[in-house]
Amino acid sequence: MNDQALRLGTRRSKLAMAQSGQVADAVSQVTGRPVELVEITTYGDTSRENLAQIGGTGVFVTALRDALLRGEVDFAVHSLKDLPTTQPDDLVLAAVPVREDPRDVLVARDGLAFAELPNGARIGTGSPRRMAQLNAYARSHGMTIETVAIRGNVDTRIGYVRNGELDAVVLAAAGLNRIGRSDEVTDFLSVDTVLPAPGQGALAIECAADNADLIAALGELDDPFTRAAVTAERSLLAALEAGCSAPVGAFADLLADGQIVKEMRLRGVVGTTDGSTLVQLSTTGPVPETHDQAMSLGRELAAEMLAKGAAGLMGERAL
Prior knowledge:
Blueprint: E1 6-10, H1 14-31, E2 35-39, H2 43-46, H3 62-69, E3 75-79, E4 91-95, E5 104-108, E6 121-124, H4 128-140, E7 145-148, H5 154-162, E8 168-172, H6 173-178, E9 187-189, E10 203-208, H7 212-218, H8 224-239, E11 248-257, E12 260-271, E13 278-286, H9 291-307
Parallel strand pairs: 1-2, 1-3, 6-7, 6-8
Antiparallel strand pairs: 3-10, 4-10, 5-8, 5-9, 11-12, 12-13
Helix pairs in contact: 8-9
């Protein structure tokens, strides 16, 4: 029995360490081996630039993948929504565990819900996707809000509300849950109001494609429904040719009849950040049983969205 420690590559942020720690415990249980965390600093962690400007996609991932390819770590844990949609040949997503809460949440002053915010409320988010949908929702409900571009870790973002600079910030529920701060949420934003980022709330466990034993062990942590859902969401994103800084929201959920899961519904949205124009569509089909079926669900919805004018809403294409 190999009892040598497995090395898990993780970003240094509090959130990354928390979610990697949870995965480390689970991997230790299925492999019977200790797991040690190896902290890796990524470009996205050190750069102070706006995420949308530094390319968004991959800025938190590249350094972890490089460490994997160099054999400095055995596997890595990513927030799935940070992963570029093209998978390198020499790395494999060995597991996508059961998804956390995929919703976005509001942390507002005075315990306010979104609908209770005063006119002209300043809401902080670094995400064009959130801006587009929040502004569209406000517009359609006769509210006036101002979305303010921010970045930084959870403490920094919530700090803007605590010190009075902003009325509210929007964050991912999953992140707050993982670091034990969900009690600070003042409103959960329904996916009917704000569609999350593709893969939001899900983790990806990645290792080298030639490590068959580790792939098999990590595979025990895979949740087939979560994997099918996030595969469909990311396929939509890829087919829209959008990076993770594009204002694309996508969410796949299972439709059940009683206890029997019948179908998967995929919803997608793309819009201008001011919320003046949104293309929002959904499609429903049999629950995908293969990777290719999940991919085609995403591609089909993307084609419909492009036909409705989605391409013109995504800002500058990276050619």
